[in-house]
TrEMBL record:
<keyword id="KW-0436">Ligase</keyword>
<dbReference type="InterPro" id="IPR023631">
    <property type="entry name" value="Amidase_dom"/>
</dbReference>
<dbReference type="GO" id="GO:0006412">
    <property type="term" value="P:translation"/>
</dbReference>
<dbReference type="InterPro" id="IPR036928">
    <property type="entry name" value="AS_sf"/>
</dbReference>
<comment type="similarity">
    <text>Belongs to the amidase family. GatA subfamily.</text>
</comment>
<dbReference type="InterPro" id="IPR004412">
    <property type="entry name" value="GatA"/>
</dbReference>
<dbReference type="GO" id="GO:0016740">
    <property type="term" value="F:transferase activity"/>
</dbReference>
<feature type="active site" description="Charge relay system">
    <location>
        <position position="79"/>
    </location>
</feature>
<dbReference type="GO" id="GO:0005524">
    <property type="term" value="F:ATP binding"/>
</dbReference>
<keyword id="KW-0648">Protein biosynthesis</keyword>
<keyword id="KW-0067">ATP-binding</keyword>
<dbReference type="InterPro" id="IPR020556">
    <property type="entry name" value="Amidase_CS"/>
</dbReference>
<protein>
    <recommendedName>
        <fullName>Glutamyl-tRNA(Gln) amidotransferase subunit A</fullName>
        <ecNumber>6.3.5.7</ecNumber>
    </recommendedName>
</protein>
<feature type="active site" description="Acyl-ester intermediate">
    <location>
        <position position="178"/>
    </location>
</feature>
<comment type="function">
    <text>Allows the formation of correctly charged Gln-tRNA(Gln) through the transamidation of misacylated Glu-tRNA(Gln) in organisms which lack glutaminyl-tRNA synthetase. The reaction takes place in the presence of glutamine and ATP through an activated gamma-phospho-Glu-tRNA(Gln).</text>
</comment>
<dbReference type="InterPro" id="IPR000120">
    <property type="entry name" value="Amidase"/>
</dbReference>
<keyword id="KW-0808">Transferase</keyword>
């Protein structure tokens, strides 16, 4: 049998169910892979010491004839923004170094109940503020395609772990693109569900009206399998939708074998000209659209005139909500405490937040606090919310004409570590195409569309669908994936020259 770590979650699930391999064998293979390559990748902040015990329990239950979930026994990486009882939960910040949560995030609890094996916690930009995973307090993660380049952010650790075959599945969170942009630059699949479709309970909050938890995988089917586990109503989350959701894995299977693309109306936004994107990204996007058109899809130009204001609105709404959410890190209740001899509570709080927060977090807290301050609330935060409404209306109008909207998942391929760290504006523009989905609450998926012609690095195509139509994304994503993989002659990660698929 080929290397276990190269198998998809779906393939692993089949082999586990048939008894061809055990969960202990699968888990050990991934732990060995982590030990072999993570010194270079730095995808993990913590490796689960109890992973093999959990795997052995699944093997015992399966041997006893218990009916287990479809992907029981498959390993899972967990973004460190999600709290866990048996591993530290730091959100990539010194202010939470060593913090142990008294409860599991709902998505983690559901993963455990489904028999998934948590391998560890993955690296991320501090409190999910960043597009490169360079803002982690524990050092950057490296892209498995080129170790000198970023793996995207804020969830670069989860994407890099999946791309480097350290885990077949991972959980991420997406506030403005933090699942989809890392997928774009690492050649993986990432999906942001409809807002409220997956519980945020136990996800350390950045911007509560934008945050959403979702899957990071190597195939669309694997994403659907994980989404089926973590999705659905949660009474602990006041924003959780009560909808009955279809099986996303079944939707992916339908897309892979059916004629989903024939007659599909794919919207292309006229306000996103090729000139705004790296040449290799734009050419890959257009080549993918040509392939889909050859399969019977209709490419329809649509207007979304307010999308161009999305970045500006987002970087007022997010900091404002972040400044409020991060106020809880005050040196009094939990987390880091820097004592100031003879100082007041305010002195201790100031010293703790100064020592515990990184520069990017401080930048956004200051910006958000200013935007919410007396005399500026309406001018900044209020105006940004009005732009948000206009973007939602753009989506409503567009989806009256097309089934899905397609864009490049990000403007560029992976840039070199350190290249943009001192230029916040350029860093923020990495989320140009992903931010509108978060502002409107609609689902979005990024799947690999090939390698950029100008630098040979991975590129992704993003599809957006109306709210609650996540299953449509799985059908379209899987159909597109099948066409692309056939055109490449095999999975894209088989071409990774460093730690990915090179053999």
């Amino acid at each position: 049998m080929s290397d276990i770590t190269r198998l998809t979650a779906a393939a692993l699930a089949d082999k586990l169910a048939s008894g061809e391999v055990s969960s202990v064998e699968v888990t050990q293979a991934h732990l060995d892979r982590i030990a072999a390559v993570d010194g270079d990748v730095h995808a993990f902040l913590h490796v689960n010491e109890k992973a093999l015990d959990a795997a052995a329990d699944i093997d015992r239950r399966r041997a006893a004839g218990e009916q287990l979930g479809p992907i029981a026994g498959v390993p899972l990486a967990v973004k460190d923004v999600l709290v866990t009882t048996d591993m530290p939960s730091t959100s990539g910040s010194k202010i939470l170094e060593g913090y142990m949560s008294p409860f599991d995030a709902t998505v983690v609890a559901r993963a455990r109940q489904a028999g998934l094996i948590p391998l560890g916690k993955t690296n991320m930009d501090e409190f999910a503020m960043g597009s490169s995973t360079e803002h982690s307090a524990y050092g950057p993660t490296h892209n498995p395609w080129d170790l000198e380049r970023i793996p995207g952010g804020s969830g670069g650790g989860s994407a890099a772990a999946v791309a480097a075959f350290e885990a077949p599945l991972a959980l991420g969170s997406d506030t403005g693109g933090s699942i989809r942009q890392p997928a774009h630059v690492t050649g993986t699949v990432g999906l942001k569900p409809t807002y409220g479709g997956v519980s945020r309970y136990g996800a350390i909050a950045l911007a509560s009206s934008l945050d959403q938890v979702g899957p990071v995988t190597r195939t669309v089917l694997d994403a659907g399998l994980l989404h089926d586990v973590i999705g659905g109503h949660d009474p602990h989350d006041s924003t959780s939708l009560t909808d009955a959701w279809p099986s996303f894995a079944d939707a992916a299977r339908e897309g892979a074998r059916g004629d989903v693309l024939k007659g599909l109306k794919i919207g292309v936004i006229t306000e996103l000209p090729d000139s705004g994107f790296q040449t290799g990204v734009a050419s890959s996007f257009r080549a993918t659209l040509d392939l889909l058109q050859a399969q019977g899809a209709d490419i329809v130009e649509i207007s979304a005139p307010h999308f161009e204001y999305g970045v500006a609105a987002y970087y007022l709404i997010l900091p404002a909500e972040a400044s409020s959410n991060l106020a809880k890190f005050d040196s009094v209740r939990f987390g880091l405490r820097v004592d100031v001899p003879g100082g007041t509570v305010e002195d201790v709080m100031a010293a703790t937040r100064d020592a515990g927060f990184g520069d990017e977090v401080k930048r956004r807290i200051i910006l958000g606090t200013y935007a919410l301050s007396a005399g500026y609330y309406d001018a900044y935060y209020g105006s940004a919310q009005k732009v948000r409404t206009l973007i939602q209306r753009d989506f409503d109008e567009a989806f009256g004409k097309v089934d899905v909207i397609a864009t490049p998942s990000a403007p560029t391929t992976a840039f070199k570590i350190g290249e943009k760290i001192d230029d916040p504006l350029q860093m923020y523009l990495n989320d140009l195409t992903t931010i509108p989905a978060n502002l409107a609450g609609v689902p979005g998926i990024s799947i690999p569309s090939g390698l950029a012609s100008d630098d040979g690095l991975p590129v992704g195509i993003q599809f957006l669908a109306p709210a609650r139509e996540d299953a449509r994304l799985y059908r379209v994503g899987a159909a597109t994936e099948a066409v692309l993989v056939d055109s490449w002659g095999g999975p894209l990660l088989d071409r990774a020259p460093v730690l990915g698929g090179a053999r």
